[in-house]
């Protein structure tokens, strides 16, 4: 059976989940979107019309060919929707939220900043953060009764991932209290933003209680904090060796046409977006990764064997050595299949379009449901099983096109994907070098899909030193 046979054999008319049903189910959808969307798609088909939040007409899909059509083949006919653009109020118009010619100009300016040479330097900085974390955690483990410490791995990884992205952007210049404040503000803004989207009927309440105003104030505080660091960097003597971080990359970049640098406000927007996009996504991927390895000690043992065979027993790997550790890369890929940090993508049709006989009128809102795509039983054998080997180059069956999109697809593909893969593989290898992990319960943890797919509540693991 081919992939196109198993997904949406008939696209011309789409099943419609009635409005009364989505309205009735909107609270359940707000509480447990993943379970509810899975149920709807299993019942009605891979592409379904429904009402988001019980009110807003949308098409949700886990069809890889339709995802490819929207993200890549016909991407010019689609923009991100107000669900993404709403973030502009708090974080500005950076790569993630920008559109059109402006987006392309910024993308051309920024993308070269993530080339191999910079990633080599950024990997050293990631090593420093991981070393600091593992030393400090090692001390806590040794001080714990019986040398066994129970930790919320999500809390740990949120700190590690924020330290990595903050250091990648600002170098070593940012003080810890300010790093913590930045992280706290970004978390608050995201959590509030998701509530305004998922429960739009609460907006008058948020306006009346000054909640919008409070979050606007957070956003101003964030900008002022970052502005201070930008100005501090600009004031550094031109004779001093420039730091090899992302802020310097953004300051040094020049537009191809004018040879001018970015304006300060544009720079602020881009820094905001890099911090947002590069923080929770990686933190969640890393949390799920360690959770899965705690439940699959055979996979953890194989990662350790691979590391030892590559001669890395006593030190952290360099950027150039990471490709020599393919099994650990497969573990990372499989984690993001089961728990894609960006679990849903939104697009809206700019003009009328058509896909395999399906009429798509201008204004149609699409939710491309990556979580469902990554666990589609017609695309993945044993979709809920953790099997890193399925990503081995010679694995059978091969992975169908556009069935695996943790970093999106087409021209809006994640600009930080190599950065993120490097970071996750490195933290994985160093984490397993120093620690053994055991789950504290046999129960599967719940998911809390906000902008990114977080674990619901703490993700407890018992840790001993390896
Ligand atoms: C596991 C980690 C990550 C995941 C799963 C992830 C996922 C994604 C996805 C799915 C998109 C496309 C969104 C869409 O098409 O609507 C995206 C875009 C983006 N990501 Fe990531 N990301 C990760 C880490 C990072 C990091 C570390 C950075 C920065 C250092 C970053 C910066 C960005 C930016 C700036 C965009 C917008 C690109 C554009 O539209 O031109 N991401 N990411």
TrEMBL record:
Listed name of the protein: Cytochrome P450
Keywords assigned by UniProt, alphabetized: Heme, Iron, Metal-binding, Monooxygenase, Oxidoreductase
Species assigned in the record: Hymenobacter endophyticus
Record-stated family: Belongs to the cytochrome P450 family.
């Amino acid at each position: 059976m081919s992939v196109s046979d198993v997904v949406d054999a008939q696209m011309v008319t789409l099943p419609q989940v009635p409005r009364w049903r989505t309205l009735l189910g909107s609270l359940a959808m707000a509480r447990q979107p993943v379970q509810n969307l899975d149920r709807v798609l299993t019942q009605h088909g891979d592409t379904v019309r429904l009402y988001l939040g019980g009110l807003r007409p949308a098409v949700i899909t886990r069809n890889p060919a339709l995802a490819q059509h929207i993200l890549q083949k016909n991407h010019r006919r689609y923009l991100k929707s107000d669900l993404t653009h709403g973030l502009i109020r708090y974080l500005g118009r950076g790569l993630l939220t920008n559109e059109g010619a402006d987006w392309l100009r910024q993308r051309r300016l920024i993308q070269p900043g993530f080339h191999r040479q910079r990633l080599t330097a950024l990997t050293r900085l990631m090593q420093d953060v991981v070393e600091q974390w593992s030393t400090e955690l090692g001390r806590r483990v040794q001080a714990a009764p019986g040398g066994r410490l129970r930790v919320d791995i999500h809390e740990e990884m949120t700190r590690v991932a924020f330290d990595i992205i903050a250091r990648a952007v600002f170098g070593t210049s940012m003080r810890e209290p300010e790093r913590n404040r930045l992280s706290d503000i970004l978390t608050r803004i995201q959590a509030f933003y998701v509530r305004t989207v998922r429960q739009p009927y609460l907006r008058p309440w948020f306006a009346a209680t000054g909640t919008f105003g409070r979050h606007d104030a957070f956003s101003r505080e964030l900008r002022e904090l970052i502005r201070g660091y930008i100005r501090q960097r600009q004031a550094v003597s031109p004779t001093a060796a420039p730091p090899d971080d992302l802020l310097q990359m953004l300051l040094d970049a020049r537009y191809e046409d004018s040879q001018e640098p970015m304006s300060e406000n544009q720079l602020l927007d881009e820094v905001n977006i890099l911090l947002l996009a590069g923080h929770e996504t990686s933190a969640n991927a890393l949390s799920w990764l360690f959770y899965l390895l705690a439940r699959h000690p055979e996979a953890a043992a194989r990662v350790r064997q691979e590391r030892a065979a590559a001669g890395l027993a006593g030190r952290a790997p360099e950027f150039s050595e990471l490709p020599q550790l393919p099994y650990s890369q497969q573990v990372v890929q499989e984690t993001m299949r089961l728990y894609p940090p960006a679990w849903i993508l939104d697009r809206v049709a700019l003009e009328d379009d058509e896909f395999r006989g399906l009429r798509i009128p201008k204004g149609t809102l699409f939710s491309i449901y990556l979580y469902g795509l990554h666990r589609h039983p017609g695309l993945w054998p044993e979709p809920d099983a953790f099997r890193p080997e399925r990503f081995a180059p010679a694995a059978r069956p091969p992975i169908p096109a556009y069935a695996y999109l943790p970093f999106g697809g087409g021209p809006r593909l994640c600009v930080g994907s190599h950065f993120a893969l490097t970071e996750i593989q490195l933290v994985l290898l160093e984490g397993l070098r120093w620690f053994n992990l055991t789950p504290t319960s046999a129960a599967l943890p719940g998911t809390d899909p906000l902008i990114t797919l977080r674990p619901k509540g703490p993700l407890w693991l018992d840790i001993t030193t390896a």
